[in-house]
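Student: I would love a firmer grasp of how sequence relates to backbone shape in proteins. Thank you; the sequence and its tokens follow:
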Amino acid sequence: MRSQHIGQSVTLAGWIHRRRDHGGVIFIDVRDREGIVQVVFNPELSKQSHEEASQWRNEFVVQVKGEVARRPAGTENSRMPTGEIEVIARSAVTLSRAKTPPFYINEEQEVDESLRLKYRYLDFRRPRMKDNLILRHRVVKFMRDFLDARGFVEVETPILIKSTPEGARDYLVPSRLQPGKFYALPQSPQQLKQLLMVGGMEKYYQIARCFRDEDLRADRQPEFTQLDLEMSFVEEEDVLRLMEDMFTQLVQTITPQFKLITPFPSLSYAEAVSRYGSDKPDVRFGLHLHELSDILGKSEFEVFRQAVEKGGKIKGISVPGCAGYSRRELDELTQIAKSCGAKGLVTLSINPDVARPEDVTLERVRSIIARFLKPEELQGVVQRLEAKGGDLLLLAAGDAVLVDKVLGELRKEMGKRLNLADPDLLAFAFIRDFPLLEWNQEEGHWQAMHHPFTAPMLEDMPLLDTAPDRARGRHYDLVCNGFELSSGSLRIYTRELQEKVFKLLGYKQEEIEERFGHMLEAFDYGAPPHGGIAPGIDRFVMLLARETNIREVIAYPKTQSAADLLMNAPSPVSDTQLRDLHLKIVE
């Protein structure tokens, strides 16, 4: 409703957003998904509508008929899109009455999340959730239109499939018709989309529902949605350029308030972990990790010396302007390091009066290890970390993987504390050259870094026989602002290579045939080279909506304990249902 509608007769239907009685004349704000309109109930113009409106309260569902009029001069509301006009009521109907809601809907205020999830249908009426769901709709529609224009075909794949290992625990569904057997809910349509390539579909996509029974966190839900796609006769660059084009155009079209860095930078897995301490780095700010093993590996500080002697590393970061951190603040950082598995953290504060690295002396730093360092070691560290006066140095030593993890978490924490990341920048980056395999120490065999269908780098194929730990996979990720948005790879498409990888992963021949025989047999009938990727829609919309938890962009999410508070699920089932499924609950 806008000023161009003045003079028109209209019918409005919606919820009572706010009610004001001004001594006879009643003003009602009526709300629906599109917005809010002020309706005036004057007893001198319509006694019936005024009497009806006298009974109305917030969240009643109503219908009003009347004429659109310009608001009297001086009563316009510039904060409302409909603030120039109002509707003069001629008739009114109460469609549905409402109890007092458990939280305010017409005021944006903090509400306990468990209450919001229990009454999610009321939460939908608030601007935050409504806008997030509409944003999600627009994102998905753009993806569909973008891929349709490029010759992709949307194909739905089944939700009830075979349980095969894909990295997480399956959700299982017992079969009534085949007692003792189970379906699994798909962790992804991985094998199904590869079989579509064998079937000649060439370009497939799907807005796919996926399920993983794993511990939850802010960016993870037991059921989630991804844009699943696969292409035949492609190389890595084909997939990555498609993703860069899609995300660039999507952001510029739907959320132009965000800035982008194009072309998207590309980092190797080793480079990302070494420089940022993470394979999903937030590249909006620096605080890079630097290795110090060559400088401190022979120092008098025993922790450093032993770390290098045992094959580990010493690394550090320089945090600007934090040399004045108190003992309590330094202890907080140490606790973060310990929560990652470290035994401790070495901190070193540089006096603000230090102008150049060569001016650093043992007397001009504050650290419990200062007395163990030689002047040249101290100056070498300061120079390597590009530190300045007033900076705080954070150093970690030990197992190389652990050191990167510890400093990576501290880098994120300090970036957050110092507001180093531009909130209006979406910093996409491709991560490539992942290891194909990683060693599972507990089970004593190799496991896939991505999944068992990822193809090895062509030049690394001989390493599968001699040094599997050095073989790289044709695996790539798309990350943004510290989140992994997409993971994909070029796939294995021959029986011989697929069987070889399965055996490297510890599967016996009979297990291979039982679990993956359908895939291997399909490869016998002529499979094209193919690859794909699967961007997570929930995480991406979360970033666009400037939210910190994907529950805010999912209509009906689960809690941290995977509970549905609205429908009270999971819940017990009847003995009859269990009997039909040939199941018994064992306490």
